[in-house]
Amino acid sequence: MNGLAEIGHFTLALSAGTAFLMASIPMLGATLDDTRLMKTGRMAALVLLGQILMSFGLLTAAFLRSDFSVKLVASHSHSLKPVLYKIAGVWGNHEGSLLLWVLILAIFSSMVAISRRIEIKRQARVVSIQGMIAFTFLLFMLMTSNPFLRLEPAPLDGNGLNPLLQDPGLAFHPPMLYLGYVGLSVAFSFAIAALIEGKADKDWARQARPFILIAWSALTLGIALGSWWAYYELGWGGWWFWDPVENASLLPWLIATALIHSVIVVEKRNTFKTWTVLLAILGFALSLLGTFIVRSGLLTSVHAFATDPARGMVILVMLMASIGGPLLLFALRGDRLASRDTSALLSRETALVANNLLLVVATATVLIGTLYPLGLEAWNGARISVGPPFYNATFAPLMGLMVIFMATGPLMAWQRADSRLLLRRLMPPLLLVVAGIGLSILLLEPHNVTAIATIGLAIWLIGGVVTDIAVTAGGLRAGQTDILRRLGGMPISRWGVNIAHLGVAVFILGAAGSSFFQSETIERVFPGDVLRAGSKIYRLEDVKPVTGPNYTSTAAELSLLSDQGEIIDTMVSEIRFYPVAGTTTTEAAIRPRIDGDAYAVLGDGDAERGYTLRLYNKPLVSWIWFGAALMALGGIFAINRPPPLEDEAKQ
Amino acid sequence: MIKFCPAFIAALLLISVALAPVAGALTPEERLDNPELEERARGLSAELRCLVCQNQSIDDSDSPFAQDLRRLIRREIEEGRTDGEIKLFLQDRYGDYVLLSPPLNSTTIALWVAPFALLAVGILGLALARRGRPGPVTGDENEMS
Amino acid sequence: MKRLILIVPLVLFAAIAGLAYVMLNASLDGTRSVQSIGFSMTGKKMPAVSLPAMGTSGTIDLEEWQGKAYAVNVFASWCGPCKLEAASIDVMAEDIPVVGINYRDDAADAAAFLDQFGNPYTMIGIDEDGSTSIRLGVHGLPETFIIDSNGIVLHHQQGPVFADDLTGSLGKAIRKATEG
Fold first, then answer.
1. Can you give the pTM of this predicted structure?
2. Which of C40, C139, C143, C153 is the best residue to mutate to test the B interface, defined by the most B CB atoms within 10 Å of its own CB?
3. Which residues, at least 6 apart from A41, have a Cβ–Cβ distance to it below 8 Å?
4. Nearest CA-CA distance, residue C57 and chain B, Å
5. What is the three-class DSSP state of A632?
6. What 3-state class would DSSP assign to A458?
7. How far is Cα A632 from Cα A634, in angstroms, rounded to an integer?
8. Dihedral, CA atoms, C46, C47, C53, C58, nearest 10 degrees?
9. Does B92 share its domain with B57?
10. Is the per-residue pLDDT at B96 higher than 80?
11. Best mutation target, A313, A319, A327, A370, to test chain C (most C CBs within 10 A)
12. DSSP conformational letter for A298
């Protein structure tokens, strides 16, 4: 069965050739107005997909079969790994992740290529640019990051048994992120096509939008998965650290959020075109920049990637060409797309402009925060740290401002909104906010201004969403059957908007609850001791050694007690030692409950001195990921198929 | 133990708890007896970088160095020094890198001012672009879809 | 004006790419290490600390060295690079007295280390829990300070001392301290 890796490598090389053809011929056809040449794009995209699928399939097979003669499998897998993680191991490394990236690119390119709802010239150009991206990545892989390298002699077993990586959240985190980055590449291709065409009309927007929404939803989920993983795996309950690698995924997400709103204006009002095209280019640029930063070793990060400055240099050169070119094109031809915006100051356009402005400034803030230490070091050698305190002071207020506009936007008309009508509609949310803040001050402690303000913002947003639904349903005076009919008639995409905005509010409440209202208790205890952390009552039952499938551990068994002392749940926190990998990990015990997560972590200790336990009550923390899931769901619901083409434009 | 309150378990959102930063690595023995001073120590720890770790605060890190720093700041707090004095003490020995919140000085002013400056420039630019622009065409107004 | 604005993204991107290029080059030719904190005590006054002495029941006090040039070397038996630099410290001790600080170590292990690699130190202080060394700005082993007769640190080295250092800036600092 040997030789499969060679076939995989060969197919990869072939696919580079296909990508080259895909990059050149359709574009040539569009320039020469030759329909036959343009149509080759479809064939090329499908062939490319087949070849990459073959390559990826063969690499996966090598992992599943534990073929340790393949260097990648030897480095990143192990015969004892469960099947799910053998598969996840395919993309849990530099080379394999690039192959996954290209696979997703091939899938999206095929989706564009076989669509019957995109004008043939535009389609040819978009497919061509996708081909250019694919070719660049494939060339990079073949020259510096070949997944199919052999190892001779083949070792008896692999090296890849890092326990921290054997985890469902972590297994799906990269594919989700890549779906996002590649989706943004499609938007990027549409943007360049528009620059070449000199046109970005309503149809362009409707054709690009589904890809942008898929990208955004996937990015949302991908980032949320990473954050959730950090929360339950790292053992100290944090979920966002403003680490450069995390920022690298947040930057494209922020731009993508601006983009999904901006493209709506192109679609509905035929303006904001130059700006939208720029956002699409920047979104993908930030995705690539992020990929570069995390693999180049330029910045310190808790995310230990295999960093290699030499490879980083190659990526940088690739970056300069693939982003510099389009930005130059934008500088030269961007003004051809310009259109006139005639909206009044009080209008939905303004709300969306505010949304975009705040998101772009937020993006710039995170980018500057991440790169400033590097820049300063280059300037005078000094090293500084830019950590959470900086971002809390700058990013948070910007997002707070944005939330204010999020509630008002859907309630405003395009072009010119009636100010009296708007004020009437904003009354319910405003009253809710006042009530909410009042209640919070009465019932919650501590009286932290930031916490109360954050809760107020979330309530404002919820109020806005509810008001929007109520307005669609016909208002308070509409009859019951009328309301139901209207709600039933509301397009799914409109529901999508509301669900997504609601998701943001849920997220904010989760973040506020767990950040400001957390209870913590750290003590050294013996079995039988009872401790409180906020509303949670814990009792340490026993601490004993445990042997797992590939680890040994000290396990603390805890019971969660009700006020009356009855056991309502049991939890186990362990300190695990994995002999093969030689690493020690801490497994926190987490029990989500209505009033907050019970979170317990075992520290050091022994039977004589007692055991250190860190116990928490984390109110609403799961709302963070639930909110993100709602956001992603809303994004998917908001997808609308572009309209069928007019006959002349059809192929 | 940080202060806690009688349970409001029935009420979903309305659970009274006390403010506390997340601690990854603090051991009970390190804690000061005075809860106010301890809270100061925790707050300060969250602002100081563990120099031998990959991007963690000394509050989060398990490393011996982080432990040493935690003990040092607690000792300094007990001896009556202010947060500012302690930060200066550490900056003197480890440079600005030890502070997770970059200091405000001539080399970092650009960093701190940038977000607000950009926002201001953006608003100004948009306001200027709006001048001399024709207003809405009647008939287009109040379109809500 | 509109056209000029359109070039801003390209210019910004070029700036970022340029920065990345410069820093990557520095990483590639070894002039930059992401591990170093980029700061040393050089130029600052050496804090006056005191520690229990190794071998006797007294204490050592850096105050005693006022008016004299000396070096401080922080080491431990568990520290690999400390073993690598032991020979260089021996050479250094010929030109300037070296005060040793034994950091977070076990007494028996430390004694064995000195037996094996030699004891170049005029006196050795024991910093059992690291709380004193941290006052000197130590964050990793080994670290070496060269202090002049005014108590100012002329050279603070983070990482092992090699032969090249003795002829390079470290050596220069030693000469300046002992002659100045």
1. 0.92
2. C139
3. A22, A25, A26, A29, A113, A123, A124, A127, A128, A131
4. 25
5. helix
6. helix
7. 5
8. 120
9. yes
10. yes
11. A327
12. -
Inter-chain residue contact A386 with B16, CB threshold 8 Å: no
Q: Which structural domain, as residue segments, surrounds residue B79? A: 1-100
Question: Angle at CA B84, nearest 5°, toward C45 and B113?
Answer: 105
**Residue pair A131/A20 in contact by the 8 Å Cβ criterion:** yes
Largest CA-CA distance found in chain C, in angstroms, rounded? 79
Q: Which residues of B touch A517 (CB under 8 A)?
A: 15, 17, 19
Task: Flag whether B22 is in a domain.
Answer: yes
User: A337 CB near a chain C CB, below 8 Å?
Assistant: no
Provide, as residue numbers in chain B, all residues whose Cβ is less than 8 Å from the Cβ of C130: 64-65, 68
Same domain, C109 and C164: yes
Same domain, C28 and C59: no
Q: Do A140 and A98 form a contact (C-beta atoms < 8 A)?
A: yes
Q: Is B54 inside any structural domain?
A: yes
Mean pLDDT for B107-134 is 91
- Specify the residue for token string 């957390």: A518
Residue C29 within a domain? yes
CA distance A531 to A194: 63
∠ at Cα A453 (A451, A457), nearest 5°? 115
DSSP A383-423: -----HHHHHHHHHHHHHHHHHHHHHGGGSPBS---HHHHH
Query: Are C14 and C84 part of one and the same domain?
Result: no
Number of domains forming the structure of chain C: 2
Report yes or no on C45 lying in a domain. no
pLDDT truncated to tens, each residue of chain C (180 aa)?
A: 567 889 999 999 999 999 999 999 988 887 777 777 878 899 999 998 999 999 888 999 999 999 999 999 999 999 999 999 999 999 999 999 999 999 999 999 999 999 999 999 999 999 998 889 989 999 888 999 999 999 999 999 988 998 888 988 899 999 999 886
In tens, the pLDDT along A37-58 reads 999 999 999 999 999 999 999 9
- Separation CA A112–CA A186 (nearest Å): 8
Same structural domain, C27 and C55: no
3-state SS record for A9-24: HHHHHHHHHHHHHHHH
* Residue B69 covered by a domain: yes
**B113 and B92: one domain?**
no
* Domain-located, residue B43: yes
Q: d(Cα C20, Cα A371) in Å, to the nearest integer?
A: 9
ipTM of the predicted structure?
A: 0.89
Examine the domain organization and report whether C109 and C148 are in the same domain: yes
Predicted pLDDT of residue B138: 62
Q: Which residues of C touch A278 (CB under 8 A)?
A: 9
Give how far B120 is from chain C: nearest CA, Å. 17
Cα angle A224-A229-A231, degrees, rounded to a multiple of 5? 95
Provide the pLDDT for residue C2: 66
Residues A422, A409: Cα–Cα separation, whole Å: 10
Query: In CATH, what number is assigned to the domain containing residue C149?
Result: 3.40.30.10
Class of residue A48 by CB neighbours under 10 A (exposed 0-12, middle 13-18, buried 19+) = buried
Comparing CA positions, the residue from A10, A292, A332, A328 lying closest to residue A148 is A10
Chain A contact set for C37 (CB, 8 A):
383
Contact in structure between A643 and A203 (CB atoms under 8 Å): yes
C-beta of residue A587 within 8 angstroms of C-beta of residue A573 = yes
Least confident window among A113-122, A581-590, B39-48: A581-590
Read off the CATH number of the domain in which B89 is found.
Answer: 1.10.8.640
- Total domain count for chain B? 2
Q: Are A248 and A293 in contact (CB under 8 A)?
A: yes
Domain that holds residue C30: 1-34
Residue among A420, A421, A252, A280 at smallest CA distance from A337: A280
Same domain, B62 and B96: yes
Q: Cα separation of A75 and A78, whole Å?
A: 8
